[in-house]
Write a structure and sequence with these properties.
Number of helices: 15
Low-confidence stretches: none
Pfam families: MPAB_Lcp_cat
GO molecular function: oxidoreductase activity
Shape: globular
Order of helices and strands: HHHHHHHHHHHHHHH
Protein name: ER-bound oxygenase mpaB/mpaB'/Rubber oxygenase catalytic domain-containing protein
Helix content: over 70%
Strand content: under 5%
Number of domains: 1
């Protein structure tokens, strides 16, 4: 009997999530949005986020990657495990994580999947964007998240609305960016900020007081060239924190399966 996977073998989502480069840009965008979300106190509740912000973000991104490439049954088991982890945190704290906070994280993964691929590779067609949306909609339904849009066009409308309503600059934001700086060091931290400037929607840029254009726009063509000549690993060795190098290399392996 043929194995059923969570995403089709020829899916654009596999192309997006099959390369460490793209995932790192998704990670950078997520790092900015996590810090601004009005529900960020939930991420601080266990104390694990401020202690290891990069590790916590990697685990979120890694969960998404595992689900994208897994067999359908395994993917739904991973989603179920995520539900149990959240339920335990809610039980310990004594109240529920709001539905809109779950939607925010799901929407963030959809948005930055598209933005990262378009920044590094090419523009996606509307059909491909719809495909990205539908894969993550399946994740959202597995997590029993309420009030999800049913197609990409409706998602765009909801995304604009939640960007206006659910984000603010707070003491948590300030602290989290200080933690990023501390864990990355000044040069890598500057690179993170440039990636965020490149990736962030207008509303996120406004809240973080970012300028409009990233200097990475000028560098990306050279990076693409380095990939053609197979010397991009030299750049990665220079810019990646050594504690996460094995994590990042592992991200690159999934596309082949």
């Amino acid at each position: 009997m043929e194995t059923t996977y969570f995403t089709k073998k020829d899916s654009i989502v596999r192309q997006i999530w099959g390369k460490a480069d793209t995932i790192l840009f998704i990670f950078a965008g997520a790092a900015a949005e996590f810090a601004l979300n009005k529900a960020v106190d939930w991420l601080y509740y266990t104390g694990r986020l401020p202690k290891d912000p990069l590790g916590r973000l990697f685990s979120t991104v890694n969960y998404a990657k595992v689900i994208v490439f897994a067999e359908e049954k395994t993917a739904f088991q991973a989603i179920d495990q995520m539900n149990k982890i959240h339920a335990k945190i809610e039980e310990n704290r004594g109240f529920k994580i709001p539905d809109w906070a779950y939607r925010d994280v799901l929407f963030m993964l959809i948005d930055y999947s598209i933005r990262a691929f378009e920044a590094l590779e090419r523009k996606l067609t509307l059909h491909e964007k719809e495909e990205v949306f539908q894969v993550f909609l399946k994740v959202g339904k597995g997590m029993k998240i309420a009030d999800l849009p049913t197609n990409f066009k409706d998602w765009e409308i909801q995304r604009r609305s939640q960007l206006q309503d659910n984000f603010e600059y707070s003491d948590f934001t300030k602290d989290l960016f200080l933690q990023y700086k501390k864990h990355l060091g000044i040069i890598r931290y500057r690179l993170l900020l440039e990636a965020q400037i490149l990736m962030a929607p207008k509303r996120i840029k406004e809240l973080l007081n970012f300028r409009n254009q990233s200097i990475l726009i000028a560098i990306i063509p050279f990076y693409r060239l380095s990939r053609i000549f197979k010397i991009d690993y030299i750049l990665k060795e220079l810019i990646l924190p050594k504690d996460y190098k094995s994590d990042i290399k592992a991200l690159d392996h999934s596309a082949a399966h």
